[in-house]
Amino acid sequence: MHVFDRKTKIAQRNRSVFLQNPSTYDYVRDEVASRLADRICDISRKFCVAVDLGCGRGHLSKYLTSDSVDFLYQCDSAVEVLKQAPHLVDIITSKLNSSEEFLPLRENSVDLVLSCLSLHWVNDIPGIFRQVLSVLKNDGCFLGVMSASDTLFELRVALQLAEVERIGGFYPHISPFVDNVDVGELLYRVGFNLITLDVEELVVHYPNMFCLMDDLRGMGESNAALNRPIHVHRDVLLAASAIYDGDTSPRQRCTEGSTPSSVGSTYDTVPVFVKDYKS
């Protein structure tokens, strides 16, 4: 079952490269990548061959060192984005323009698979988990972070309420995200062992809803669901903005470093750590 339009998503991400100062929009991926890199450093072993699945502009690889990885495959479906991933000084790298839904590597050839916020647009999550398991060597590791179910829930609710009020129904404007429990069950079903999951929340403050939507476009994270609406009525957007600005919880408005006029938006993530022992 296909939920997402992969061609549209790749086009969105490629277009984002040509915006003025595209790295301005990397703040969420960079922060999550930094946290994931800390987890990699906590592992007391060196990985000969690693894969960064959906590497983007090298958000994760810039935090890696030769103390952890010898050779790194940088894989991404958006070729213009992939071009901006830097070659590393102390780690041998190879760039592969390949879909996040397909790992073009031999079985039992990789020691570590990494993925940082690149799997929430994949149509077949169990399928890519099976491929990760297949390419990993015995005692290999899979470390990743996926966008989870509460990501952008403030924007989702605001748009839904506005559309119900103005047109009597609503369309899917925000990608359906996985639940952390579902991720664990899927990993177990495809054959992974020693699964560790966590939940982390990152709240970013924006002046208003339209600034958030502009940043999502700059990230290449606009809606790419197959049943997405082509256009959103102006009055729906204005109503959603009023709801979004007014209904954000006091907890989010009072986060340290925010201003009274800023509105919090939640990025909910599921860090995944799997150490696999194949029988």
Automatic annotation (TrEMBL):
Pfam families: Methyltransf_11 (PF08241)
Keyword Transmembrane helix listed: no
Any one cellular-component term (Gene Ontology): mitochondrion
Domain Methyltransferase type: 51-142
CDD domains: AdoMet_MTases
MF terms (GO), sorted A to Z: S-adenosylmethionine-dependent methyltransferase activity
SUPFAM superfamilies membership: S-adenosyl-L-methionine-dependent methyltransferases
Record-level GO BP terms: methylation; mitochondrial respiratory chain complex I assembly
Domain of life (superkingdom): Eukaryota
Protein name in UniProt: Arginine-hydroxylase NDUFAF5, mitochondrial
Species this protein is from: Paragonimus westermani
